[in-house]
Amino acid sequence: MVVAAKKPAVAKAATPKAPVKAAAKSPARRSEKTGAVAEFSKEEELDAYRKMLEIRRFEEKAGQLYGMGLIGGFCHLYIGQEAVVVGMQAALREGDQVITGYRDHGHMLATGMDPKGVMAELTGRRGGYSKGKGGSMHMFSTEKGFYGGHGIVGAQVSLGTGLAFANRYRDNGNVSLTYFGDGAANQGQVYESFNMAELWKLPVVFIIENNKYAMGTAVNRASAQTDFSKRGASFNIPGEQVDGMDVRAVTAAGARAVEFARSGKGPYILEMLTYRYRGHSMSDPAKYRSKEEVQKMRTEHDPIEQVRARLLEKKWASEDELKAIDAEIRDRMNAAADFASADPEPDVAELYTDVLR
Ligand SMILES: Cc1ncc(C[n+]2csc(CCOP(=O)(O)OP(=O)(O)O)c2C)c(N)n1
Ligand SMILES: [Mg+2]
User: Do the Cβ atoms of 269 and 239 come closer than 8 Å?
Assistant: First the structure.
């Protein structure tokens, strides 16, 4: 595979003057419904830049702590997929819920959970969201509307549908964002959930994060239907494919889907075409894809680079200003890591508290 020459491809693809032309290069990556990519204001671009960078820097720090032996067990990084959660979160309002699988740090940060509490949970410390007893895959914050963090592939889909059922029952107007992967999309309970969600017109948006792999298995080796936006067809659930590397496309599709669900029309499926740069978990031999493939996505489709290029191109921010934002975020993530390294582990007396027996 040929590696594309450095950055320009991203800068060019992201040039605001020619978004449609750029998107036409890979039609499958555009929102099927609208075709066009919504423009962002300066504030929206800066906000997306900050939020995506916060997730990226958090994850890089988590990767370092894992390498230092401070994080044990599994740790699944979200690097590369940041535009999905940041774009979707923009459509939510207080009271809405988010639920996902084990690749969950980005979702938590997007809902506004504190990086210190998330990092301290990764290192198994008292100040962690689950008091240091849950780890990477098991964190919750009802305050921020985050319902986990689930290690059983696909399990969150029926739970997320249940959240939507409760919303409907209580008639509170809230929507459940239920995220799962391309691999999880082949689980049986997903389809039982789809059936009930459409039958009872539940306010749930199913977001399938198609990052092209389930552990080391490529989508086309495991899925008979690789267009996941069509997976609800036999239940009459509408779906669309979205360029999950372009935060503007995600934001526009997210707003449409959430509005659809909130207005009582029932569930909606968004297939996010995205990519993870790191391994499945920290212990991934990465033999199932080439370095060139990863590099090509990084140089041509990186979600943060796209925003950065637009900000510079439109002169909405200077290199120095963007560097200052980055420095401030790095400081906060370093502080989170310091806290997560210094905070004590849970007391032995906590062994049986908060545990279902
Ligand atoms: C029910 C169940 N089966 C198998 C596993 C092992 N497993 C963990 S992650 C994973 C792959 C899931 O891939 P995908 O849904 O695409 O999510 P991604 O990791 O790409 O975010 C598998 C098979 C599991 N945790 N639960
Ligand atoms: Mg996957």
Answer: yes
N residues, the chain: 357
HSE-CB at 288 with a 13 A cutoff on CA atoms is: 16
Alpha helices in 30-133 (DSSP H): 42-67, 82-89, 105-110, 115-122
Shortest-distance ligand to the CA of residue 76: 1
Atom of ligand 1 nearest to the CA of 185: 15
Integer Cα distance of 88 and 249 in angstroms: 10
- Computed over every residue of the chain, the mean pLDDT equals 91
Provide mean pLDDT across the span 98-126. Answer: 98
In the chain, the largest separation of any two C-alpha atoms, in whole Å, equals: 62
Q: What are φ and ψ of residue 338, in 5° steps?
A: -60, -45
Task: Give dist(CA 75, CA 278) in Å, integer.
Answer: 11
- Give residue 355's pLDDT band: very low, low, confident or very high (50, 70, 90): confident
CB 308 within 8 A of CB 322: yes
Q: What is the pLDDT of residues 185-234, one digit of tens each?
A: 999 999 999 999 999 999 999 999 999 999 999 999 999 999 999 999 99
Cα(41) to centroid of ligand 1, in Å? 37
CA of 314 relative to ligand 2 center, distance in Å:
34
Probe residue for ligand 1, chosen from 215, 220, 271, 275 as the CB with the greatest number of ligand atoms within 8 Å: 215
CATH superfamily, with its number, for domain 8-337? Thiamin diphosphate (ThDP)-binding fold, Pyr/PP domains (3.40.50.970)
Q: Which two three-digit tokens encode residue 292?
A: 């060139």
8 Å CB contact between 232 and 199:
no
pLDDT of amino acid 285: 85
Task: For residue 78, give the ligand nearest its CA.
Answer: 1
Distance 256 CA to ligand 1 centre (A): 28
The model's pLDDT over 323-345, given as tens digits with 9 standing for 90+, comes to 999 999 999 999 999 999 999 99
DSSP-assigned beta bridge partners for residue 243: 273
Contact call for residues 185 and 223 (beta carbons, < 8 A): yes
Map tokens 């914050």 to a residue: 141
